[in-house]
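SAMPLE LOG
Freezer: B-3
Tube label: C17
Construct: single chain, 767 aa
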Amino acid sequence: MSFPVFHRMRHSIVVLCLGMLSLAGCEPSGQAPVADTTVAAVGVAEFIGGQACATCHADEYERWTGSHHDLAMQVADETTVLADFEAARFTYNGITSEFFRRGNSFFVRTDGADGDLAEFEVTHAFGVDPLQQYLVALPGGRYQVLTTAWDTRPADQGGQRWFHLYPDEAIDNDDPLHWTGVFQSWNSTCAGCHSTNLEKNYSVSEHSFATSWSSIDVDCEACHGAGSLHAADPAAAPPQLGGEPGARWMFAPGASIAMRSGPGERQQEIETCAQCHARRGQLIDEYKAGSPLLDAFRPALLQPGLYHPDGQILDEVYVYGSFLQSRMHQAGVSCSDCHDPHSAKLRYDGNAVCAQCHLPATYEVTEHHHHESGQAGSACVDCHMPAKTYMVVDPRRDHSFRVPRPDLSAELDTPNACNGCHENQDSGWAADIVREWFPDGRSGTPHYGQALAAGSNWARDRGPRLLALVADNNAPPIVRATAISMLAEQIDEAAFAAVSQALNSESPLMQLAAVEAYSDVPSSVRASALLPFLDHPLRALRLAAARQLVSARAELRQVQAGRLDEVLVEYRQSQAFNSDRSEGFLNIAGLQIELGDTAAAEASLQTAIERAPWFAGAYVNLADLYRQTGREALALEVLTQAVEQSAEDPASHFALGLTRVRAGQSTEALDAFQRAVELAPDEPYYRYIYGVALHSVVGADRALESLRDAHERFPGYRDITFALATMSRDAGFTGEALRYARELLELSPGNSAALALIDELATLRQE
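STRUCTURE (predicted):
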């Protein structure tokens, strides 16, 4: 099989995702429903409320009572609302909001969706520490989260005040981050993780919600599942999530780190927690306690913007992706080893929680941590679990449990625990100190972050580094899955071989990344490789395979096509579930286009724009549909609207540039491409197309200058290297062209186009 040198990355045309990556979050409806403790029919488990568990599980219920899970969501009243609603005022972005009471009810006067000041009743409070947020009911069953929150910390810690969650931004009423916007929707963003047995019940046709739940908070059944059968017959036990009963962590003679006496099954517990403690997209409202995570969710990988190149937390990622990287996870540690699952508190205070497995005589000494005992730097978490603050006041600790690597900070521009405290020093200073303390430590040793950084930065050795990482059985599967997704951005024979092998991995995350990597593989190969995944037990993999096989339908036999249609029904259900956000309509439109139903696709995209005028992806895809159907004038009109609505979106400017090229508006096209490059300086594809456009409009000198600069920034991006080789050849710079052609061959060994170009250039030099 041969892969072309040029591979257009999938940026602005149809952006497909199986589910929105959502934050763990919020909840509604006036009063919490009273738990029904009647026993369901035999064989049918129903939710009966956590209070029904208290009789037999009194100790667990007592520990849960008053926990963050118990208080995740509460009806707003004088006992639950912690904020100052006594005629308090807070000003943000020129809007002064007033918080006040009327009788036993709580109100806020602030700017609504239309920008005008109005009164809104607060129906619910959620969260208790270190902040509390508040819900407002709007028409259509919507509950929205106020972006002005209450700091519940003591006053001497800076708390007991109103504050805005986006203090450094100016969020207007037409911004999706405004409290009335889609990103502050309780129904789709918060509800699933602040309540039990939530059913979003979004109506696509009515664009409304009838969201329901069995318990207003996160109670026993949120983790253990519906309890009616167990209540009727204790032998009908729900999933035991803690692994092998009686298993303990024990120190072997002379050992400093404990080993578990019985491994048991720990992944079930971890994935039960991950349904909320993960950055993930939700596929459907059908998650059952104890089920694998990927049957209802699609976890995020270690992608740029969410994580630093070495896997440390960057955006708020809710622990799971970090923990999967850790040696703790590889050794069999699970959530409940450190956290009491019922109280949600640490099992022990301070270093004692780590001392369960790490011998204090070895680790809780100055010779190890090199700081004065009891002072900053002597706590295990100071060095191995550095915190990052989100939502202004909420510090979250990195659960990858990594050894500080300031030497990597100097190389990769990543944070480290040392400089997190010693801010007046640089990473080089910290690296020298660590090497002095631990001459036989990990400083200077390879780390998977170097390969991931090479991948995201398009380094010259990108391909070999990522291939080696995918093949490294000692690397965490989430890391290897991330490497697979990076290889897929420019696939060649070597990358294809690695991706194909990953289809057979024991890791569902690696399998999922591999399935999604097949989008640029020839349809006949794609069909034969992905057909088995239509029957995969995990929904995420079935849906991913089905979406990849749509364009390969002609390669399928009738029976196989029938099975594809069955799974596509699941896919449509998943997108309908997520169509409260316009991305759902975008994904459905992409499917409709590939099935040849362009009229339906046009309607889907127009609906996406109508419901989210700021959503640039819908404009870009609608314009591309118009292009495909010969309506270039409409494409230009739509993209002009996109730029007006989302002036800072690079994809809109880039698509506008492509459309202006086709319209013969060369100068205007260059302006659009240049703006896309300015807005997305780390996107090599935009730089490549801009260089090609410069060559056509301005000439070789400007194009070569631009592409040389792009090549210096992205030496591993093959399209840029190939363009430099051919343009240099055409400009008479044969030696320079040959150098770029040889680089291209290094980037893609055996590439036929590179070999042909080298032969051509060698002949020219001889002449």
